[in-house]
Amino acid sequence: RQMCIRDRVISCWMGLKKTVEWARTEWGIFRKGGEMGWGQRARWVRQWVPFGARTVGWGTLSITVGPFTGGKVSTWAAKNWSRSSAKGLNIHIEVSGENNVPHGGFVYASNHESLVDILVLGAALPGDFKWAAKRSVMNVPFLGWHLRLAGHVPVDRNKGKEAAIAVTEAFESVLRADKPLLVFPEGTRTADGKLKPFKNGGFQAAVLTGKPVVPVALNGTFTLMSRDEVDTGASMAEGNRPVTVQIGRPLYPSTELDEEEAIAELRDRTRAAVVDMLGLTSSPEAVAGPSPQP
User: Fold this and answer.
1) pTM for the whole thing?
2) Residues near 109 by Cβ (< 8 Å), separated by ≥ 6?
């Protein structure tokens, strides 16, 4: 019993350490704290303290009631957390292409502009999709607990071939269960607002399961909160905070190519579709030219 208690204490301590490491890496406030004036500090408190309260509230509902409802309450709580958080930050979301979403399992493949992307996509995208999230996010109290309970997929970056294989297998499990999967194929947020090369993981799972990929173009969150920003800006006027989410038509894997070629072809087709959609709402220089990553 003493060993069990000790193990739990160690596990909690390690989780806390990883949460702090995640916050220092992901939140600009820990990199720019000394450069912030009192006005910016006050704005950070006004935006993120209510966000934290919403995360605790909806997360608590998910992890306490969700297991007794087959996950339905967890899905409902996640959707409401996303919508209420976006509304609390006064982010105005315009969605198009919902009629393109197929039934069953498929891969949402979206560009990644900002820390607030998951709020926007959680509010905008239809379906009970599973999110491919950095493993460090899984250690964030309430948010991470919800993600683990709801069956979202932890992703280890730069952990070698075995970790990549395990992630792809987890992606396949989601798709074979006929659940939608959300991936950010760039792997990380853009640093300059331009689209990065796409990685193979989600596309490999789509090819191996024969499931389609639905391209998603997200525009506006980089302007609100780029990688080094600590909040979503001073102007809270709705007209100054538009975000668009465009959902493209599903792209099916080729059945005429071998596996490696089919993965690369589907990846490149998806990236081209995202580039085309971004071109409708962005200046040409904001969209990087095609540069697929093997």
Assistant:
1) 0.83
2) 183, 185, 198, 202, 203, 213, 214, 215, 216, 270, 274
